[in-house]
Amino acid sequence: xxxxxxxxxxxxxxxxxxxxxxxxxxxxxxxxxxxxxxxxxxxxxxxxxxxxxxxxxxxxxxxxxxxxxxxxxxxxxxxxxxxxxxxxxxxxxxxxxxxxxxxxxxxxxxxxxxxxxxxxxxxxxxxxxxxxxxxxxxxxxxxxxxxxxxxxxxxxxxxxxxxxxxxxxxxxxxxxxxxxxxxxxxxx
Length: 188
Prior knowledge:
- This is Exotoxin.
- By secondary structure, this protein is of the alpha+beta class.
- It is built from 4 helices and 9 strands; from the N terminus they run βαβααββββββαβ.
């Protein structure tokens, strides 16, 4: 039996808001059914195999200083390791997990994260890869990670990739940058 869990607070809040708006608008459109059941809620309660460790719920991966010259020479930066810690895993509920990441995609490199607007920095994107260096495209699930009872630490890496046009024209704009991703867990 597959159990799918996705952890995105913004998705949850958006879903609740849309449900409330839809319910509110249909209540005005409905006939006056005083006393009738005209609002129903449904869902499904499921068990969660693991708890996302508090330190893994929201992470900041700091690249510190990335040297522009290395982007022009190698096309990308060094890989910066990070991990997600799942704790209190109950194997009777789920034995495997697949992880995917998503966020605002780079127009030039759609499998990578765009840097957020607001700064002057441009010509780069943030890439993700598995611990062994295999590319991890946005929206694509990893292969299964077999869980063990208790705590499980799953390792990934992030890197800065120069956009092809910025490399060709040698016009990477320097400065501070940020990118934001949401991770999703799918248990089996």
